[in-house]
Amino acid sequence: MIQFQNVTKSYSGDKKAVDQLNLTIPDGKIFGFLGPNGAGKSTTIKMLTGILPIDEGTITINSFDISKHPLEAKKTFGYVPDSPNMFLRLKGIEYLNFIGDVYDIPTDQRKEKIEYLTKEFGIYEVLNDAIQTYSHGMRQKVIVSGVLLHDPDVWILDEPLTGLDPKSSYKLKEMMREHARKGKTVFFSTHVLEVVEQLCDQVAIINNGKLEFTGQMDDMREKFNTEGSLEQLFLELTNHE
């Protein structure tokens, strides 16, 4: 479970990128996090993962405060950032073994998991090549494989489907569903609204740093008295000052 309590972040003093955010992401759900560019979505995710400090409020991940107990909190989650352009000089297998070392994954278990994940995503044959030679989609696949390697309870996925081919995208979505079915947490940010409608159990929409809505799709349609698509609802919620 992830909990945001009165979380605020400012960059220039006056302008609040995130303003008094209160949000609970429950276990056993795929939770979609939406917002237009500049709404505070990326700032929220960076505070959640400990990349940015929190100005006010608290964020807890499986009861660990990310500010007070960062190492304990970070051991419980896996994070796919919105850009896979990291560790480019390492070979794919070197990167995955580095992740295995960070999380103390036993060698035999690690080898088996690396083989399974990279075969699922179609990159097993290129693991001895440098990541800088990979396409964007292949880089995304090796980052996702690294995130899933230690089987974290909480998945924090920022645009994870970007650059994936249809087969790999389907595989990852099935893994997300299975993770949620096990009673674990999937926090999922995307711009592809059709994917949200197909995949997410609950959604939250942030705009101008404030939470506009949180709940199930049916709740949102009932609240706004419409049978329209998520795209129509999203535009209605965010197309105002």
UniProtKB/TrEMBL annotation:
Any coiled-coil regions, as ranges: none
Domain ABC transporter intervals: 2-233
SMART domains: AAA (SM00382)
Keywords: ATP-binding, Nucleotide-binding, Transport
GO molecular function: ATP binding; ATP hydrolysis activity
Keyword ATP-binding tagged: yes
Cross-referenced SUPFAM superfamilies: P-loop containing nucleoside triphosphate hydrolases (SSF52540)
Name of the protein this chain belongs to: ABC transporter
